[in-house]
Amino acid sequence: MTSHDLRSQLASLTTEAFRPELAGIDRLPTLDIARLMNGEDAGVPAAVAGQLPRIAAAIDAVAARMARGGRLVYAGAGTAGRLGVLDASECPPTFNTDPEQVVGLIAGGPPAMVTSVEGAEDSEELARRDLDALKLTPDDSVVGVSASGRTPYAVGAVAHARALGALTVGLACNAHSALGAAAEHGIEVVVGPELITGSTRLKAGTAQKLVLNMLSTITMIRLGKTYGNLMVDVRASNDKLRARSHRIVAQATGAGDTEIEKALTETGGEVKQAILVLLAGVDGPTAARLLEESGGHLRAALAHAPH
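^ that's the sequence the OP posted. Answer follows.
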């Protein structure tokens, strides 16, 4: 693509549009700029709301594959890539997932998390190589993330993943994007032009963060990683987590401290098993078996417990 082609392509993107009414922003008092920025941000959740049916459909498709042992893979460049890596890295401590289960790929690899890796985002070949290193299967899901919806790394990742039979999701912030078209599930959250022209780490980045929060969190709810709104798939591996585990068991069961400590000791600190011991009146090994038979879903295990 020539520089002229790229310039005309960028000129057509909402995320790159110039707003003449903000041309004097640098001359405003700081509080006025903060008010302007806050007002801009206030519109982001409404833009996400317009895509909720598409987001929900993508989540159900991802969860079905992850229930069969598939992985969730994010692929993006720059801010979009960093947000994917952030979301992936927060799944193990929050939901006790295997670090290989939710993966964040950023164009240019780990160094690109803190510095710009020149040219990496322009390479579809790099995306294919990064995905091939993961040995994708049809049970895996690949989410391409790109504010513009045209970033070759993200579009290339989705196109390659789809050709391999994996589920694909394209998350963009422009309508009729190449990324949305390339994916089985296109999610286009149009937040409009940025306060600082083309700075898509602002509203577009916020929109992407909100959608990625939904994708991972609701998928984990569907996979039984929570009980109600409690993080029951946490393992007590340090003092803070031991205290949190005790609190979660208390909130789920209403049991006293002594009973909770006994149940946690009996189950090796496994919160779900401890809750089952207390609510179903079973022993540790029975709780472990019931959970295994229920695919890790605590509610299902409780329903199947002997009464």
